[in-house]
Amino acid sequence: MRETLMLWWQLMRLRARARLQNRLSLVLAWISQGFGYAGAFASIWVILNRFGGLGGWRWPELAFLLGFQIFGYALGAMFTFTQFRFMEEQVRDGEFDMLLVRPVNPWSFLVFSGIDLQYGSHFALGLVLMIMAGLQLDLDWDLLMILRLLLSLMSAAMLTGAMFTALGACAFVLGRSRFLFGLYFDFWELSRYPAIIFGLPLQLILLTILPFSYMGFVPVSVLLGKPVPILGDAAPMLAILAGPITALIAAWIWRACLRRYQGFGV
Amino acid sequence: MSLIIQADSVSKIFQQRKRLPGLSGTLRGLLKPETVPVRAVEEISFAIRAGEAVGYLGPNGAGKSTMIKMLTGILAPSTGKVHVLGRQPVEERVANAREIGVVFGQRSQLWWDLPVSDSFDLARHIYRIDPARFAENRAEMVEMLALGSFLDRPVRQLSLGQRMRADIAMALLHGPKILFLDEPTIGLDVVAKDVVRKFLARINRQRGTTIILTTHDLQDIEEICPRLIMVDDGRLLFDGPLRSLRRSFGARRRLRLDFYTDPGPIWIGGARPVGSSGTQREFEVDEDGRSLIDLISALPPGTPLRDASLHEPGIEEVIRTHYQRRRA
Ligand SMILES: Nc1ncnc2c1ncn2[C@@H]1O[C@H](COP(=O)(O)OP(=O)(O)OP(=O)(O)O)[C@@H](O)[C@H]1O
Ligand SMILES: [Mg+2]
């Protein structure tokens, strides 16, 4: 076990070292992404001001949701997004085969050797929004509340990583998975908003087969003491368990797909 | 010596998915995939003893890489069994991986943006190599493969020959019992090829590391591998010492006769005429043991013979004609 942890640590160190060789490009990535998100959030703010609210959510509440969603997402994506989005290429040109001839768990190896420092502005933006909104909102920030916040962020991060893992695993069987990531982000955008503004069918979908609601709407509603449609009393529990549950499902999908892996003739 | 690699009637059949273009094609492919079976490896059996060096030769698409992938735990055989060090590689992938080294000529284990030495350090953690043993092995590799001058350079700046040497070193740092190499000399220049060949032959001899390498280049085999396994179209064609390949393929020696004047049609018992031009005649000699003198004395008396020679066909030529015959 100690040796495994050492290996993971070593992988993260090397990956960070490689990325930091080009600090300028890293900083530029932070800035451009930061501006991109800030712009998107600003336009939501403008709309909200015009209509006075969105599905009964006022600005500080929505700001907290935006901050939570981007922070939780970044926490999961920094361990998974880059590597699993490139699964298709890795499988096609045989890079993945190179992992299988080493005495390592290929998933862990991918995760720790591909950790991505690009999410600096996501974290900064998420924190600022959560703190600012959290102070404006009339909330009781005791230890239990903070613990619940941390656990739900973890759950959202696990959910993100689990979904990327499952999408990437499709490359083992189909030889392609890139297109799934395009579809993913079409729905992911929806996880920024309070899901009550959508029709019932879409709400149901976002709570079940495409569980994007657990990345923001459900846990933030619970934290802010707002009712959660459909889930009702199960919401507080699911806000924290959604991540671990999808992680288990994703692990199962990963293994099932890997068992069927046949390489791609290189 | 013990058998450490065994293949028993191994076959690998790939279901090659027909790819349809566009998103609708992809979706259709998901729901109702159309596949064609490709028989990459068919009913191949062989056994390799500890300490052997075996060359696995065959033209493109012959199934060489597929066999390597089955032996290294990447792919499971469709039928038949492979055993490496007593294990089925896919079933016990991690345990197998600890005891073997693998080099794919077209890919690298090294970390692209970082110095070679960082990748070596990583190997220490991946294979849990004892630090003292690691230091010793590393020093030996650096010396034998002359890596010293570029150990601190990022891999992306290395020449292909340097990178290949570093890759081979990386695969040997944990002292594997078997080294698998899939086209280790591909793309290298003459000098770099020579370095790699000499090194592999030495590792095999000195450390007793079992080597199995695939190649298109017969010279790799001549210099490293006393034993040759030849495949074509998934099937085993030949397994044995390189020097007995000629006989096994029934390659004939050629007799060339040169005359002062056109001798007209010439017949020699046990030799088949295969060509003539002007005052030259060529024959294929059926019997391996017959000497040149013996053949010449079979000529009718008084033939104006100027020169005579008997050619052994080169191995390369034997193989080439063999493949050409199969293609035809
Ligand atoms: N993962 C795969 N899926 C489908 N077909 C495959 C796969 N891998 C190999 N093949 C097919 O199997 C056959 C043998 O391939 P293989 O890569 O083993 O040949 P090879 O002898 O290594 O050839 P080369 O000299 O070109 O490297 C080829 O027809 C190839 O297209
Ligand atoms: Mg090959």
TrEMBL record, chain A:
It comes from the Bacteria. The keyword Membrane applies. InterPro entries: ABC-2_transporter-like (IPR010390). Keywords: Membrane, Transmembrane, Transmembrane helix. The chain crosses the membrane at residues 64-86, 107-133, 145-174, 195-214, 234-254. Coiled coil: none annotated. This is ABC transporter permease. It comes from Xaviernesmea oryzae.
UniProtKB/TrEMBL annotation, chain B:
Keywords: ATP-binding, Nucleotide-binding, Transport. It comes from the Bacteria. Pfam families: ABC_tran. GO terms for molecular function: ATP binding; ATP hydrolysis activity. Residues 5-258 form the ABC transporter domain. Belongs to the ABC transporter superfamily. This is ABC transporter ATP-binding protein.
